Every structure is written in structure tokens, then in C-alpha cells.
User: Fold these one by one.
Assistant:
Number 1:
Amino acid sequence: MANRSPVPGPAERTPSSRWWCPSVYWAAAGLSLMVFLVPVFVRWALDGNAHAHPATGYTIPDHLKILTHICQAILFLIVVGAGIMCWRTSRRLGAVSISAALLIGFCLSGWASPYINTFHYVSASNRYDFNVISWGPYLPGLQGQPPGVESFNLAVFGFAAASLWYFVAIAIMRFLHRRRPRWSTLRIIAVTQIPMLLVDVVGVQLLIRFGGFCFANTFPGITMFADEWYQRPMVSFVTFAFGCVLPLTAMVFSAEVRNRTVLVLRGCDQLPGPIQPWVRIFAGIGVVNLFIFVFAMTEALASLLGHPSATVPQWCQLPQPHAPQHSLAA
């Protein structure tokens, strides 16, 4: 009888086929995004934009100046605390955890901030905050727009600290799973959205009141504190909590309950050892940035249904266009 090569089973894949798995696909997406962003930020920096916008043309109350710096410190500590927690979890697991990978993705997602203002000025940065000239005009689809300001409390620390929503939601799901073991996964995920509504409303309102940013667009009938400088359109809760946080937490929690590998990391354990941490990290970058970009564009499209607010405070108003040292087309 002729010799026949053994057919690889589910846990035994050929060297070539093991690269065809979800973790590699997501990692390729994350790596491609980072490679794409390098020339964007290089051109932005070479054109002389890597500095704060001139602090002129606006006034801000003294107490809000203090709160702005407090906000910077709080957001920084949130990100550092989450990083320490994820580092300890990864050390205990002996591999980059899914939470660590997603946290890195959140920390590298601020590049998409300008897309929120694609059609209207929606997300207004606090100009007193640490800031730089916006890189928006260097992103595809935004060329020709007057560059605004990208603040650290929003585009840097803000997007990174948004991971707190993920960690809180996961913690609530795990708590409910322990206290209500008979509840279905779907029921736990659905019930979690109730306290997450409170977390989002309070969290975002605190961020606004502490000078993080403000909303420059209003939606009649569905805006909290409408026509006040600290207003908050509830459409942003739907786009972020349901459109970004919910899919990520549902994916991770469902995998935990079934004792399976999270989809975006599936197949990673079959890859060569030295490359596994990088695949996990870039897979987290890929999936988070996809949802953040979808969130940003959904916010931009939703702004077409609202109208500009007349109560945007001076410290959050769009500054006068800043002429770069070189042409954007260079």
C-alpha cells in the first residue's frame, strides 16, 4: 500500500495553513493601519504643526483652567492604572491578554478624532488643554478643511481612557455571571447596558465639566442640557456605547463563558512563539481602530441631522485657520 501523508487534525495544522487564521487577519489590519499613519504624521510634523495652537482669541474661567489640569492628571492615571492591570494579567497568563491588546488599540486610536468633524464641528477640543495643530487635513477625505486643535484630553488621553468603558462593562458582565449563573450570555450582555447608560452619562458629563471638551452640535429633543455649553447629545451614547464598546465586550465575554479563545486572537497559539505577542498586539490595534473609526464616521453622519450650537464657549470654538509652513500637497 502506498505511503500517504497524514491529514492534519483541528489541533495539528501545516506550517503554511496556520497563518490563515483570524488573529493574523486582524494583526495585518492593525499593522497596515500603523504603516499608513506614518507618512500622515511625518508630513504633518514636517509642515510645522507639532506645536500648540497660539493661546489667543479666547478667554476661559480661572476655575476651569484648574479643572482642565486635574482632568489631564485623572485621564493619565486611568490609562496608567489600566496599563498596570493589563501588564499583571498578561504576566499571569504568560501571554499578551486580550484586554492588554485592546488597551493598546484604544491608546493608538486618537488619530481618528478629526473624522468626527467631517461635516460639522461636533467634537470641540478645549484650547487651554495641552494641544497641537490638528492632523485632520492630512487624512484622506479631510484635505482642504481648516485645521483645528487636537487636545490631549480628547485625542490622546481621551480616546485611551475610553477603554475604561470596556473594563467597566466587562466587570459588570462578570459580576452578573457570578451572581446569576443561570442567566444566558445574551441576557447578561443586555442587562449590562442599563448601568452602562449611567456610567456613560456621568462619565462624559464629568469629562465635559472638567474641561475635557464640549459638543458643538445639538439635536432637538435628544440633547441633555440643550443650549448649555456642557450639553450632551444622547446620540453619542448610541454611537459609542452600542456601536463600539458593546461589540468588543460581547465578543470577549462570550468567549470567556464558552471557555474559548476570543475571535480576534483565534489561531495565534499555533504561530511561532516569538511572533505571538506582536500578532496579539496588532490584532487588538486592528479591531479597536475599526470600531473607533466607525464610531467617528457615525458621529459625523449623525451631525447632519443636528445643527450647530450657539452656546459653544470661547475656549472650545474653532480657532482661526493656521497656515502651515509648507503646502499640504507637497
Number 2:
Amino acid sequence: MNFNHPDIDSFYNSFLRELMNIEQFTIRTANDVKIRSVLNTDVYTKATRFLEGSVKHIIYTSAMIRGDNSTELLELVARLKSLNNPKFDKIKTIIMNELNFNIEDGFRCGAFIGNDKTLLDEIVNNRHRNVHASEDVSQWYNSNAKDIENFKIEFESMIKIISYIDGISFDSASNNFVREFP
């Protein structure tokens, strides 16, 4: 997988190395069981950060390519701060608002399917469950009911959607963002 944005590509490859390390971690002691649990939780947090950062980077870079001036870019940065817990509908809305581009076209053309949107949201939901503590301390260490195998399925769907968004380009002739398929 290669992304059009080199920063996203670099982060993705770094993330894959971390994922490989998590997969290769071997449980040998009782303490290792706890470490595995922390790693399974951490991977969701990092994936959500990758998703959020990728979307913000694509929007910001696209605005620069469109020719937005420095004032417009500063205002955009302020609006991008509202994108947290980036579920599919939030991503769709912010891209439509900022780039006037409907990422549902990716669904209609088969770049991703409805279940991919659901699984992307599941990554964000699991991250949310993992980072927000409840008042019940018995749940503090056991909020993650998923393992690395669940994550890999969900991650594949998230990557399909990021890849689609990563392919958005600016057509200066029509003054619109477009997404063409090879």
C-alpha cells in the first residue's frame, strides 16, 4: 500500500512495524498477559490518531493545493480541531464542508463497502471505550474486549477509506475536487 501523501505513507509504514511487533509479542509470564492487554488497547488509540491525522492532513494539503491563502488556512486549522472521534459520518461531513467533496462516492463506486464504514467506526468506538475510565475500577483494566485479530479486520476497512480519501485531487479547470480511478 502506498499513499499519495508521503507523510501519511510514512506514518502508515511506521504503524505497520508497530503492529508487527505487537503480533510477535509472546506471552511467557502472568505479567505478559497484562502487557498484551495494554498492547491490544494501545493499537486502537494509535489507529484512531492515524485516521484523524490523515484526514486533517488531506484536507489541509488539499486546501493549500486549491490556493487557500494564509488567513483561510489558519481558519481551516481552527475548524479541523473539531474533528475528534472521527467516525465515518464526521469525516464525511468535514470533507464535504471543507472540500465540497462527497466521500460516499467511494461507496457508490465500490472503493469501500458499507461494512467498511461500520468497522472504521468500531475502531473509533473501541478507542473511546479504552481511553475513558468509568467510576467502576473493576472496568479500568478490562474495557477492551477485542484482540489484535479483531483489530486487523477493522484496520483493513479503515485503510480502504483513507486510501479513497487520499486519492482526492484538485481539478483546476473545474475548480473542484475529484477522485478518479485507474
Number 3:
Amino acid sequence: MKDESELVALVAEKFKLNGWVVIVSRPSQNRIYFIESSGRRKAPDFIALKQGRLFVAEAKCRSADLFSAGRGRLSDVSSLRELALESVGIPFLGRVARRLASLQIRHDGIESMEIGLIAASSLSRMHADASDDLMIIIADAGAEVGASAQFNW
């Protein structure tokens, strides 16, 4: 996989084929974001909706990069876990709802939010164990897209 944009585009196609409405499918977008505990804005790379299920994910070509924190920044994994906090998740869901309305996408509401990771390489055993509460999507170089067992397409 050349870059995150290619990775996210490939995953978006798989989601669309499985009946999802893809809301965001590009790295570095800034329309739908949440505020991390550090005060920094975080805009997920991928957001999709299907039958009340909202899937929110960060994407990296190298899976290990999802777990790396930069100077003064949380790792993507830590950042996404903050979405489970009511104080972070509720304003984020409001932004998602406003974006759906602006795109004139009809839906019956958001009933649940699933957090996930998208990578072009498999997770190491250590990273897999550290992320067993997240949905994992792997898109390999052969353009095959697979998901962790607990993910329901």
C-alpha cells in the first residue's frame, strides 16, 4: 500500500459493498473531529454508518504506527479510546449528525459507536492483545480487506 489515502479508499469500497454509508474516507480531514484530553483536535480517517451503527477508525499503512505517540500527542489508539468517554463522544456524535444532515443522508439515528483500526499490515501479537477492545480491519497489498472476528459487516 502506497499511502493512507489508498488504504482508506480500499476499505471504503469494501464497506460500501456491504451496505455501509461512508461519511469520511480520507486522512487529514477536519470536518468531523473530537477534542482529546490534551486539548488537541482529532479528526478520524474513516467514519461509516449502517443501520444505526457508527464505525469510527484511524488508518495507518504500518500497523505499529497506530500505537505510537508523538511529542505531546496521544497515539491513535489512545485517542480513539477517548471517544468512549461521554464528555468526548456526545459532542462528536453531534458533529456526525450535523454532517449527515448537511450531506442530506437520511438515517434512523445512531444507536451505537464502534471504534476501530485500519492497517495495511497485520498487528503484532503485542499490539493485537493491546487492542482486543477495538475492531481491526486489515487491507493487504493484494487488495483483500478482512476484519477481526467480532466485526459484523
